Structure formats: C-alpha cells, structure tokens
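Comment thread on ticket #2218

A.B. wrote:
> Attaching the input chain for the structure job we discussed in standup.
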Amino acid sequence: MKKKEGFIIVFFLILLVVILGGVIYYFNVNKKDTQNEIIEEYVPQEEVSDEQLRNTIISLYFINKESGEINPEARTISTNLLIDNPYKYLLEQLIEGPKNEKLTKAIPDNTKINNVELNGDTLNIDFSHEFIDNAPEGKDAENKIIETIVKTVTELNEVNSVKILIDGEENKCFKDEGINFEKTFAREDY
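C.D. wrote:
> Ran it. Output below, let me know if you need it in another format.
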C-alpha cells in the first residue's frame, strides 16, 4: 500500500508541477502579447504646417530710446519673404521701424529704396533723397543711421560691406557733410 500511496503522491506532485507550469506559461505568453501590441501613432491635436516649418529668425537693428545704443530686435518671419530680394526686405523692415516700444528707427522718415544690388560682397543701396534731406544733423545721429543699416544687412553671410547711393548718384553726403558716402561701410567699422 505504501507503494500505491507513494505513487499517488508522486502523480499529484507531477500533476501539480504540470498545472503550475501551464499557468506560468499562460501568463508569460499573455504578457509578451501585450508587449508586442502595435502602439498607435501619436497624432498631435494641432499639426505643424509646412509654413511654420519654413520660418527663420532675423535681427534688425534700431536705436534704444533710453540709452541711445544700437540694439537688435529679433523677428520670426517666413523664409518666403526672403526669396526674391532679402536685402530689400530687411531694409523695408528698418524703414518701417521696430515692434518693440523701447526702440526707435534710425532711417529718416519718407525714405524710399530705389534699388538694392549685391556686387561681390558689397551691398549697393540706392536711397531716395529723403535719406539725406530728412536725416537729423550731427555726426553721432548720422553714424547711428549707417550703423543700423550695416549691422542689419551684414547679418546675411554674403554681405560684408555697404555702399550708399542717393538717387543713383555716388559721393553724396548728409547735409552737414559729416559723413560722406564715397566709401563703403563695413561691420568692423562699428
């Protein structure tokens, strides 16, 4: 009888091991299945448009009203605005003036851009006569006008200096003849 009882105990132990093995196997298989589930792609509530991807930051230079120093104003713009004539666009933004209330524009009122042309690494800018007619007098004020232009356009890698013309004519100067436009103006000068 002892053999029969031993056999039954061994049989139940083997049966118990098989059942426990099956249960463990079942839970491991289900665990792996949940790990291998395909995770749905995350879709943001608002998608980023192509236009938002095509933005860049530009720096325009204006006069600080309190300190009188030249300070940059960063703006995020669409790169499409810079495709045709980036130089003219930057100058138009300088003429329009800053968005920051602590800054003021340096380019004289009613100034128009007749032409802008890159010649080598020098940007030739042809302004209307209002550039000199409406400019404040004094070498310091005149220097600030030139500095804001030079610092803004030389932010572009291909521009290293600026040549200013007035209504297509070279060798003009401001009314008080403090600054003559016969030379080119480089960023290093400021």
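A.B. wrote:
> Thanks. Noting for the ticket: Residues 1-30 form one domain.
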